[in-house]
Amino acid sequence: MSSSRLRGIFTPNIVPLLPDGEINEAETRRYVDWLIDHGVHGLYPNGSTGEFTRFTAEERRRIIEIMADQARGRVPILAGAAEANAKETIKACEYYHQLGCRAVAIVSPFYYKLSPAGVYAYFKEIADNTPIDVTLYNIPMFASPIDVPTVLKLAEECPRVVAIKDSSGDLPHMMRMIAAVRPVRPDFAFLTGWDAALMPMLLIGCDGGTNATSGVAPEITRKLFDLTMAGKIDEARDLQYRLLPLFDTMLYSAEFPDGFRAALKLRGIEPGPSRQPRSAVQEQQLAKLSDQLQCLLAAEGFTSEPAGGCKVERTVDPEHIAKIVQGVVGELKKRGMA
Fold first, then answer.
1. What secondary structure letter does DSSP report for 190?
2. Is residue 1 in some structural domain?
3. Is residue 211 part of a domain?
4. Distance (Å, rounded) from C-alpha 100 to C-alpha 28?
5. What is the CATH number of the domain that holds 167?
6. Which residues partner with 103 through β-bridges?
7. The dihedral of CA 282, 283, 288, 292: what is its sign?
8. How many structural domains does the chain have?
9. DSSP of 38-76
10. Domain limits for position 324
11. What is the pLDDT along the chain (338 residues), one digit of tens a residue?
């Protein structure tokens, strides 16, 4: 178990593909360098944004091999290690440990919905038999949820379980986890996977995030992290609201994660085709979405405007976000954390 707590923005990596759908190793390596050069704290391959379920077990291992080799220890790697069962997941953990990854992230069992007792047993089996630190991955929209008592029990009983990545976007849920776990495991890290609440999550005590937007606009998420941690609330609040329409457009205007792949192409990285077949209607929607994304990226200075120009309307209510921040700070003061 490492003594250093996971901290910062770990980028959920998109996997560039060749026209035939195979992994584009050269572009993947260029993407790794681009992300590191643009300030990400760490890499997070084989996550939801990386479409890990659409690759074979061998391909998932190859993705980590390529990224670990290209990163060469410049940033830590949080490797997605979820396989179909505990036995195969443990084998993946062992291999990623050999590659020098900092930790693995493991989603709770999916397809079959498990009770809290079943979720606990699954992670306990892995934690007792892995040589590498484990980050629990809570994404209730896709997999069995990990409740607070289960997180606390695993944190108390399993030294290898060192963090949780929570993608629910549920602020009170995150606060309850931090309040329950941190007193008994000060080294335990809390990462948010919900970009729309990155700043509030950091303010309540999260150590960082695994944020899909960082794979497209790493400059924004890194700056938002730095501003928030430095206590520059007004600047961070403005940036959080600027991140919001970009995140929402990439997430909700196409089938996940196609919006993120389309935006990445606009940043000069060629993601290639998706492995998920698309209809003609979907292709038309993506073409239209690219213009919207180009406008949003142009507003941040990352691209030029499309030929037809941009009409991007911002509907930010500064008073609303100010109230949210004040509420979070007030709650922290009540808990003696600010």
1. E
2. no
3. yes
4. 19
5. 3.20.20.70
6. 78, 133
7. positive
8. 1
9. TT-SEEE-SSTTTTGGGS-HHHHHHHHHHHHHHHTTSS-
10. 8-334
11. 666 899 999 999 999 999 999 999 999 999 999 999 999 999 999 999 999 999 999 999 999 999 999 999 999 999 999 999 999 999 999 999 999 999 999 999 888 889 999 999 999 999 999 999 999 999 998 999 999 999 999 999 999 999 999 999 999 999 999 999 999 999 999 999 999 999 999 999 999 999 999 999 999 999 999 999 999 999 999 999 999 999 999 999 999 999 999 999 999 999 999 999 999 999 999 989 999 999 999 999 999 998 888 874 544 445 545 555 565 556 556 655 55
Confidence (pTM): 0.89
Tokens representing residue 128 in the block = 């007792």
Q: Report how far apart, in Å, the C-alpha atoms of 337 and of each of 129, 157, 199, 205, 329 are.
A: 35, 26, 16, 8, 9
Residue 162: phi and psi, rounded to 5, are -115, -5
CA distance 37 to 245: 25
For residue 249, tell me if it sits in a domain: yes
Alpha helices in 145-232 (DSSP H): 148-157, 171-181, 198-203, 218-229
Token digits for 278?
A: 């698309």
State how far the alpha carbon of 183 is from the alpha carbons of 83, 177, 298, in Å. Answer: 32, 11, 44
Which residue do the tokens 């709770």 mark?
108
In angstroms, the Cα distances linking 119 to 89, 124, 194, 325 are 14, 9, 22, 34
Is 2 domain-assigned?
A: no
According to DSSP, residue 316 is labeled -
